[in-house]
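In response to the reviewer comment on reproducibility (Comment 2.3), we provide here a single inverse folding case reported in full, input and output, so that an independent group could reproduce the run without further information from us. The structure tokens appear first.
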């Protein structure tokens, strides 16, 4: 069954040039109006509860000192401890971290996890640091934000350019300063330190589950459908491989920061995985020289004639500039905020179905929730159980969003925001204000 959708409402003060924070706030204002939320509660939700900016000094390998700016933003703890990843990227800034923290609050509420939202980041290009420098940066940052984090206050996780090894350093620093091991302070850790099975591919698996859910409702059979994936990192790579291996989809294009590759008959993912396991920087660059795929750039990938497009790289990739040329009929957002507010409107007008980030990529935080629960209980689950539970949470969230979209005749992003906002507002109102 296809749903009929209303045009997303206009938010008065947002343009395509606004960043991810403008987009998130614009979406929020629409949800406020639709639910008739009172001004006091709007004010609470618009702003982060707490923000910390830290100047993180590290000793470089050559004996000099460098200082990096880091942030931790806790958007809301109304529904539980704040939860959110840690990003290392030269473009990290306070507004971006605020937006990503807000998205985490809404994502946790869509999946109905007992968490609020947070995000952290350091403005750094990690490839310019040695491994020892990266470790010192992670440890010093963890120590500097320690006053506001905690396993029942704010729990970190990996995001762009951070990984299980960095989570281990983070956890070890907090544990050393606490005088005892605190595995539940971060998720996405190595399994030997209390990490969860299934966490590494959980976000991509959630994206794949969301893709199958939307296809089922649109009456499309997954085997043979053509898929293009922007960003062959943790999220994109796992989503692509799971869709191909477990659901029979044909992945015709993938890309990373070095460019993209395309084969209309389907890419040989095992050969590509083998290639990137040895290539410089783990990048796709050079693969097309084997003659099994054509080289394309990232702009071409987004506008390919495919059934499903999965943007899984960075924010603001689908814009006013390219949304008119997109030919996929379904977009499943693996990345956070890949579609600008104005582009979203254009996609709607063109009848393109968008499964929004706060639903589609909630698999990662869902498995992080499982990891946190396992750490608190000192009892660990098997991979099958993790996968079953993950499937249950994502497909239930999908169904709930779908129902709201149908009942109100609205698009899925607006429906996801409404569902989440209702849950967040209920928590705020039932807790009441202290003092
Ligand atoms: P990652 O660093 O593992 O992968 C990012 C990929 O995008 C890499 O292949 C990189 O080369 C590529 N890329 C970077 N810039 C690009 C560009 N301009 N064009 C095309 N490709 C480009 O990061 P990730 O963990 O896979 O995260 C990707 C997105 O998913 C981010 O928006 C992140 O916030 C979001 N996300 C990640 C998780 C998670 O569990 N890792 C969970 C939820 C959301």
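Designed residues, in position order:
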């Amino acid at each position: 069954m296809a749903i009929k959708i209303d045009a997303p409402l206009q938010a008065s003060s947002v343009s395509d040039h606004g960043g991810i924070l403008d987009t998130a706030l614009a979406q929020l204002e629409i949800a406020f109006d639709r639910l008739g939320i009172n001004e006091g509660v709007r004010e609470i939700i618009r702003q982060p509860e707490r923000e910390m900016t830290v100047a993180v000094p590290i000793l470089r390998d050559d004996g000099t000192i460098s200082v990096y700016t880091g942030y931790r933003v806790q958007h809301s703890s109304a529904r539980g401890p704040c939860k959110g990843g840690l990003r290392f990227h030269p473009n990290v800034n306070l507004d971006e971290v605020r937006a990503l923290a807000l998205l985490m609050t809404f994502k946790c509420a869509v999946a109905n996890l007992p968490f609020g939202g947070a995000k952290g980041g350091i403005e750094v290009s990690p490839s310019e640091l040695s491994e020892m420098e990266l470790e010192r940066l992670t440890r010093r940052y963890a120590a500097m934000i320690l006053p506001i984090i905690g396993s029942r206050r704010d729990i970190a996780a990996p995001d762009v350019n951070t990984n299980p090894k960095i989570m281990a350093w983070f956890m070890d620093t907090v544990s050393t300063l606490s005088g005892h091991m605190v595995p539940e302070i971060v998720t996405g850790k190595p399994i030997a330190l209390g990490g969860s099975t299934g966490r590494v591919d959980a976000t991509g698996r959630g994206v794949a589950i969301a893709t199958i859910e939307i296809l089922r409702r649109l009456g499309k059979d997954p085997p043979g459908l053509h898929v293009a994936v922007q960003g062959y990192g943790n999220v994109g790579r796992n989503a692509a491989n799971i869709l191909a291996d477990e659901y029979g989809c044909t992945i015709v294009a993938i890309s990373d920061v070095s460019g993209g590759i395309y084969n209309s008959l389907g890419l040989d993912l095992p050969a590509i995985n083998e290639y990137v396991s040895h290539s410089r920087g783990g990048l796709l660059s050079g693969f097309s020289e084997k003659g099994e795929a054509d080289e394309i750039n990232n702009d071409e990938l987004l506008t390919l004639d495919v059934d499903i497009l999965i943007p899984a790289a960075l924010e603001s990739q689908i814009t006013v500039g390219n949304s008119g040329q997109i030919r996929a009929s379904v977009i499943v957002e693996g990345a956070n905020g890949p579609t600008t507010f104005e582009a979203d409107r254009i996609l709607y007008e063109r009848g393109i179905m968008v499964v929004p980030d706060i639903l589609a990529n909630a698999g990662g935080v869902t498995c992080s929730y499982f990891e946190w629960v396992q750490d608190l209980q000192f009892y660990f689950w098997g991979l099958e159980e993790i996968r079953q539970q993950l499937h249950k949470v994502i497909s239930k969230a999908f169904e709930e969003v779908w129902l709201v979209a149908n009942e109100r005749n609205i698009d899925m992003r607006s429906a996801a925001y409404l569902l989440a906002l209702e849950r967040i507002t209920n928590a705020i109102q039932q807790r009441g204000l202290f003092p």
